[in-house]
Amino acid sequence: MGKQPDLAISVSHLRVIRGANVVLPDLSLDIPRGALVGLLGPSGAGKSTLMRAIVGAQIVAGGSITVLGLPAGSAPLRSRVGYVTQAPSVYMDLSARENLRYFASLVGAPATDPQRVLEIVGLAKDADRPVNTLSGGQLTRVSLSVALVGKPEVLILDEPTVGLDPVLRRDLWKVFRGLAEGGATLVVSSHVLDEATRCDRLIIMRNGGVLADGTLPEILAATKTKDADAAFLALADREDAKEKAA
């Protein structure tokens, strides 16, 4: 049987081993189309590994992943899935506009697409400066803009707001919300739990597993807590108690 048509991403019993470490022992989850999903948890939880697996950049030891009904990493998905890594993946000696023209040509996007994307991320005024002269926040926007060329249906964003000041974080989340309202599916990872309030749905990870998967109100109700930080601590304590009892 095929995957449900309303699912953008379906992960089934995913197992990933890196070196001698089992990073993801047995992870399953589904993400519906058009959702803005926060992938939250501390460093080392397995968030980046999961994201690499979703875009097909991670060798997996077992399980399966489908994206838009196709196997993760398959050729037809290259123009339908955008990916922003933690480290900038752009040419530093080129301008933002030159980067966008190059990447747009790779995915067959129209010649007008770079300007459209520059307007979305608020870089139009600085589009012709070499990327290596831009601020950290502007560099983050360049990385995001590259992922947006061609209007991908799924966006995988790994820690896109890390190190940014509150104003820039707010502005980027406005961009993310607008993309979701336009029909895109976004998975945004963060170790900053207060960003949970900006998401339609949360997947909270720890030690390669999913502690919780639902809306923020659902998770707060289940843990009898008042905010995402308290909910995470309650979930972590519950998990530790189970391991001790086992």
Account of the 3D structure:
With 246 residues, this protein is an alpha/beta fold. It has a domain at 1-80 and 180-246: 3-Layer(aba) Sandwich (Rossmann fold), CATH 3.40.50. Helix content is 35%, strand content 26%. It is built from 7 helices and 10 strands. The chain has a 6-stranded mixed beta sheet with strand order 6-7-8-3-9-10, with helices on both faces. Helix 3 (113-121) crosses helix 4 and helix 6 (216-223) packs across helix 7. The longest helix has 18 residues, at 228-245.
- Strand neighbour order, sheet with most strands: 6-7-8-3-9-10
Kindly estimate the percentage of residues that lie in beta strands according to DSSP: 25-35%
Alpha plus pi helix count:
7
Poorly predicted tracts of residues? none
Compute the CA-based radius of gyration.
18 Å
Shape: globular
Mean pLDDT: 92
- Work out the number of β strands: 10
The helical percent reads 25-40%
What's the short version?
The chain is an alpha/beta fold. It is 35% helix and 26% strand. Strand 4 and strand 5 form a beta hairpin.
